[in-house]
């Protein structure tokens, strides 16, 4: 009190203590609740990691089975909520649709959304995990003019999601285990990343006493920006533009270095990682494998690798310690799976949801939590008198 320091972008200021995720940005280390991301990505699954993040420990097999069962039982959206989608243009960006529908979801549970009631919190944790993927898939279907499918609760989390996105009413849906495993792995890699902009947004909104739906909806909006989750979409647009322009990769990199028109190398750089992002390393490893297994050859992957190679050997990027981040290679994989570019950030949101829920709860249950209320240093006019009153 009485002493305000200025810290644009919160580069030096911790807003909270947290026991969820550990990052060492210099060494490129990421752990959820102490477990290395490499081990979780390889051996765990989305819901097990969600439980780990939310409750602090790995679930027992029985706990996981019950959790999985509860999530499956809550996938249905209220029929009226489906009308919500018809009021939007088919050109609507799926991220706007996702955040708006998530906020709208809360209107069905207004008497069951008290942040101070642990039963409500528990129930809405399940509801959000179950329903967000359905909303996301409907946003996708809406954008391509196809009918919505009902969730198939005989399927696990990822298969259900894939079927909702790629299944059509007129044909049985064929599971693709390669795609399921690849998507599961990508989702795990996105599940948490401590106090990034969207998670901090969820905590800040939550600190006012707002419920989980409002807080998560706000987090989705924060994630939408191209400097955050929107970067995965921006990377693919950037690669496609380079390909279509016929400009050499070297020339593009020169334009980035000269900051021509503010152009940046999307998917590069990170506030915390000053080394290779450990998630990017894993995504890069699976990109080749997944494309091969799916039988896709995408020249954009070759272009991305060329871009990375040139950047990593260039003084501009070396001096600033800019490395590929998680968004650099994910888009190529999502594209190979058949997702349109504008769904990429939505996939990030589905991935990040457990982290947002874990942080919302940590904030809610921490007795030290206060409403988030940054200070400012005032730079405006001194007191002056309204004309005619002097
Ligand atoms: N391309 C070119 N130059 C860059 C880039 C980039 N991608 N990132 C940082 N720089 C430069 C920046 O211009 C500055 O140089 P100078 O000192 O000459 O002005 C220097 O590197 C330090 O960068 P900064 O902007 O101060 O770093 P920051 O911590 O404020 O920003 C960032 C971090 C991620 C917003 C930024 O690196 C960026 O805009 N990257 C591109 C967008 C992106 O890929 N975002 C995804 C982040 S990872 C996943 C997620 O959170 O969603």
From TrEMBL:
Q: Which GO terms describe its molecular function?
A: citrate synthase activity
Give the record's GO biological process terms: tricarboxylic acid cycle
**Catalyses which reaction(s):** oxaloacetate + acetyl-CoA + H2O = citrate + CoA + H(+)
Pathway(s) it belongs to? Carbohydrate metabolism; tricarboxylic acid cycle; isocitrate from oxaloacetate: step 1/2
By its UniProt entry, which InterPro entries does this protein fall under? Citrate_synth-like_lrg_a-sub (IPR016142), Citrate_synth-like_sm_a-sub (IPR016143), Citrate_synthase (IPR002020), Citrate_synthase_AS (IPR019810), Citrate_synthase_bac-typ (IPR024176), Citrate_synthase_sf (IPR036969), Citrate_synthase_typ-I (IPR010953)
Kindly name one Pfam family recorded for this protein: Citrate_synt
Top-level taxonomic group: Bacteria
Give the active-site positions: 270, 327
Under NCBIfam families, the record lists:
cit_synth_I, PRK05614.1
The Swiss-Prot or TrEMBL record describes its family as follows: Belongs to the citrate synthase family.
Q: What is this protein called?
A: Citrate synthase
The species this protein belongs to is: Microbacterium thalassium
């Amino acid at each position: 009190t009485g002493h305000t320091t200025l810290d644009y972008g919160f580069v030096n200021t911790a807003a909270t203590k947290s026991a969820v995720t550990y990052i060492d940005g210099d060494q490129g280390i990421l752990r959820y609740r102490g477990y290395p991301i490499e081990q979780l990505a390889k051996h765990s699954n989305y819901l097990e990691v969600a439980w780990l993040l939310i409750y602090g420990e790995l679930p027992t097999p029985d706990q996981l089975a019950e959790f999985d069962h509860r999530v499956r039982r809550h996938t249905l959206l209220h029929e009226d909520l489906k009308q919500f989608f018809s009021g939007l243009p088919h050109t609507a960006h799926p991220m706007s649709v996702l955040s708006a529908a998530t906020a709208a979801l809360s209107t069905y549970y207004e008497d069951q959304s008290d942040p101070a009631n642990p039963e409500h919190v528990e129930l809405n944790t399940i509801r959000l995990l179950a329903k967000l993927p359905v909303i996301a898939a409907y946003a996708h279907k809406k954008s391509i003019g196809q009918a919505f499918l009902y969730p198939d609760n005989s399927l696990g989390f990822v298969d259900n999601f894939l079927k909702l996105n790629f299944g059509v009413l007129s044909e049985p849906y064929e599971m693709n285990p390669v795609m399921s495993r690849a998507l599961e792995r990508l989702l795990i890699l996105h599940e948490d990343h401590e106090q990034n902009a969207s998670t901090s947004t969820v905590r800040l909104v939550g600190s006012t006493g707002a419920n989980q739906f409002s807080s998560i909806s706000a987090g989705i909006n924060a994630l939408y920006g191209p400097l955050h989750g929107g970067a995965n979409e921006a990377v693919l647009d950037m690669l496609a533009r380079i390909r279509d322009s016929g400009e050499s990769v070297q020339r593009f990199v020169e334009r980035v270095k000269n900051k021509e028109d503010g152009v940046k190398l999307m998917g590069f750089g990170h506030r915390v990682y000053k080394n290779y992002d450990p998630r990017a390393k894993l995504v890069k490893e699976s990109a080749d494998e997944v494309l091969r297994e799916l039988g896709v050859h995408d020249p954009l992957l070759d272009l991305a690798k060329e871009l990375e190679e040139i950047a990593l050997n260039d003084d501009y990027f070396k001096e600033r310690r800019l490395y590929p981040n998680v968004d650099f290679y994910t888009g190529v994989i999502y594209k190979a799976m058949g997702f349109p570019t504008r769904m990429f950030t939505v996939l990030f949101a589905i991935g990040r949801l457990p982290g947002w829920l874990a942080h919302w709860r940590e904030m809610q249950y921490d007795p030290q939590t206060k409403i988030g209320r940054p200070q400012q240093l005032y730079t405006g006019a001194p007191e002056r008198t309204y004309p005619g009153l002097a």
